[in-house]
Each structure stands twice: as structure tokens, then as C-alpha cells.
């Protein structure tokens, strides 16, 4: 009976360690995304991408399917061009 207790405690310890490592990796990944966004993104780019994502969601609902790469590129670059033209 005692060996089952130790086995059970070992399983609990293993699960706890796994969850801890998973949480640490996820936190590190979130920090990396945040720092990359600070270094490489601008407010205009974020706004254009947010608008593009919303537009893509509407298009997918209207069409009832996933968009092709060409359709996605057309929407994204359309919003980027629109933002660039309004700035000049």
C-alpha cells in the first residue's frame, strides 16, 4: 500500500512540475511578443491590422468559407495603402 502512495505522490509531483514549466514558457513567450511589438510595430500599423482582421472576419462570414491568401493580402495591403495615402 505504501508503494502506491509514493507512486501517487510521484505522479502529482510530475504533473505539478509540468504545469510550472508550461506556465513559465507561456509567460516567456508573452514577454517576447510584447517586446517585439514595442520594437517593430507602430500605432498606424496596429490600427491597419486590426481593421484588416475585422474586415477579413466579415468577409469570411459573408462568404461562409476561409479566405484565400490572395484575398487576405488584398485586404491587408489595401488598409496599409489607405493608411499611407492618408498620411501623405
Describe this structure in words.
The chain has two domains: 1-40; 41-88, no CATH class. It is built from three helices and no strands. It has helices at residues 2-40, 43-63, 69-87.
Primary descriptors:
88 residues; mainly alpha; 2 domains
List the helices and strands and how they pair.
Elements: H1 2-40, H2 43-63, H3 69-87
Short synopsis of the structure:
The protein has 88 residues and is an all-alpha fold. It has 3 helices and no strands. The model has no long low-confidence stretch (mean pLDDT 87).
Secondary-structure content class:
mainly alpha
What general outline do the C-alpha atoms trace? Answer: elongated
Helix content: over 70%
Number of E strands = 0
Gap between N and C termini: 78 Å
